[in-house]
Amino acid sequence: MIDIRHRSFEETLLDCESLGGVDLIVTSPPYPDARPGQYGGDASHDFTWPDYQRLGDHVARALKPGGFAAINIDGPVRFWRSKKIGSERSLIAFKLAIDWAERVGLRYVEHCAYVRLGTPGRFDPRWRSGWEPIHIFQRTGAQGHFDRWGATLERKTQNANFSGAKRHGGKVVCFEGRTTRYNERRILTTAIEAHVGGNSTDTGHPASFSPVIADAFVLCYSPPAGLVCDPFMGSGTVALSCVRNGRSVIGGDLGARESDGKRWADVARERVEEIVNPAQRALFA
Description:
CATH superfamily of the largest domain: Vaccinia Virus protein VP39
Helix content: 10-25%
Number of domains: 2
Number of helices: 6
Radius of gyration: 20 Å
Strand order of the largest sheet: 1-15-14-2-3-7-6-13
CATH architecture of the largest domain: 3-Layer(aba) Sandwich
Largest sheet: 8 strands, mixed
CATH class of the largest domain: Alpha Beta
Order of helices and strands: EHEHEEEHEEEEEEEEHEHEH
Distance between the termini: 7 Å
């Protein structure tokens, strides 16, 4: 199934709930520093704390028991409380994690760092911000799907051994019984490196999502032929990952491209249509 529409995150997640839930939600909601009209179209001009709380409630109901949600969220440096004490980094990422775990009742599985490679922006008088948090939650009630070898990276160093494994017959034999060829691939860590704005096509989105990040979560946290949701789909990076990797996808977005007013849901759908084969076209909702 490929279901991409111009709709709010509430509508998208309610549709997930009506389908019996999804295996994975992977998304990056608007950050609290979005300038008015940044996402265009019908998108909210001001995403506030009650919106993040409402999102958490909908995410919990939209997941299958055992399903996962990977949420990329960060905040800027601002005078959040008082100019008397100086500027501060927004605590929104940590506030959201605590609220969704304690109030909403989701299991807090993991925290990952999206290590943002690329040209540094303005950062005086601080160090350059080189990462963003990605929180991984799970709805309780089932084990859920997690394949730590679902996505791998090329090894950076030759003749290096895995921790907790031994070399045997030209392969690495891990204690869990899984095998992989020596010096060929390496398992992901919770620090995932990806270039900023790493989409293969420049769509003009003001906050493009990295395909490396999308692939990491789609391949590791959703089963083959599973159902994945992105309620803030933007230009469709998560949808493209799903189609490439044999997953169904449901998504939505209310924004529109600033340059020409084209709705992001239409941009995402067209990008997906470009890579599907004739047999897959019947999957479009």
